[in-house]
Amino acid sequence: MTRSGQEYLESLRDGRTIWLDGERVEDITLHPAFRNTARSFAGLYDLAHDSAHTPVLTRDGAHLAYTVPRSYEDLVARRRAYKVWAEASFGFLGRTPDYMASGAAGFAAAPGVFTTDTFDGAANALAFHRRLAGGDLFPTFTITNPQGAPSPYDAAGGTAQDDPVVRVVAEKDGGIVVRGAKMIGTAAVFGNEVVVGTIEPLAPRDVDRAVCFSIPLDTPGLSLISRVSYEGAARSVFDNPLSSRFDENDTLLVCDDVFVPWESVLTYRNVDASFGMWWRTPAYVNFVHQAATRFWTKLEFLSGLAILLTKSNGTHQLPPVTQAVGRLLGMVAQAKAFVLAAEASYEEVDEGRGGVMPGKDISLAQRIMAGELYPRAVQEIKLLAGGGVIQLPASGEDLLHPELGPLVRRYTGAAGRPAEDRVKLLKLAWDALGSEFASRHDQYERFYHGAPHVYLTQQAWEGDTASCERLAQSCLDGYALGGDPEGTGPR
Predict the structure, then answer these.
(1) Are residues 350 and 438 in the same domain?
(2) Which residues of 22-40 are buried (b: 16+ CB within 10 A; e: fewer)?
(3) Model confidence over 247-256: pLDDT tens digits?
(4) Owning domain of residue 122
(5) What is the CATH classification number for the domain harbouring 372?
(6) What is the DSSP letter of 146?
């Protein structure tokens, strides 16, 4: 059964260890750096729990993201659920609960990947999926090693004890003990459980790092160290309409001799399984399906913002502006096309025993498109916005000031648009395009699914190079030196 937003908020008051600016945060539902975003997540739960959107968002009492799709129609239904939640944050909450939920469904679709000669995690993977779906939990993850943290064996005299990355340091009755850190825990402070693992390929000797598990956020020894909070720096919703409500935060996860019960372990001391759980199950492709739907939604919002700006500036009918808007709408159509094409090119999982997943080739290519398209879209809108977004009152309260208000209203209004409406629009634009929050999103979208050198190389490996090469070779094979000058025609 899905939870209400209030039930979700209550689940966050569990004594978890969150650090911000050198202080421990006692309750993120009340702290000014986190409370509004927590309420935004709570709003998503309310949409699923009891709203007009409930039939679209849920099936059999659980969010559709937890469903293992069995058909093309199931993929479409799941995407429609993704879209509802994405529109609630205008695409700015990237790690909503349906993201990792779809990954858990991917694990459940191919549990055999978790069975190895070192550890059989298949039953745990299935139980993990059931637990999350049954409790309507918010699963998060940290699966990236800290930058600049090579294997300790690469350094002269290095040992496993010098390793800063999460790794196994001991076995005990009933479980294992882990120590080390992971980045980037996006939205982890707002979750109920966190999956700790590695999506990066490991060397055969790095078996201590080859572990994946999921534990509650209040587990003893587990800490999350937050970056600066954009929500905490926001003046008001009027002045910072996005960063004040949709700052999902990013954290460094630290395990200080954390005990993990065996039933919470998914992979153990097996580099192939720890890597393959993401790539040889539908988990990663499911991630892309959710993320691609959100990205499409975000471009819709930004394009709509651009249209409002040009109308406010009185430039929307100028031919160059019309062309720029057309270019943005073309980007929206590209983003939408990737989602629909991935669904239409769906593939069977485990010869159909694990249902279906979106087409892998197109799903992986979406990462290339999104990482390159987002900064171009933002740059296009900045050019359309002009200088108005940087010449704004420090606060919307200036409009209400007895002496300052009349001046601000007189000089910030536009023909046919009251000053308050125009300032409101421009502040929204700045929060989306030029603020520190916006800069984080620019970097975030560029690296949402990894670094370009990773996903471009993977595309070369995963793409259908044989068909492309075969088509080009068929052209070469169709003629020869000294042959018919008119050619052989179509083959």
Answers:
(1) yes
(2) eeebebbbebebbbbbbeb
(3) 999 999 999 9
(4) 5-279
(5) 1.20.140.10
(6) P
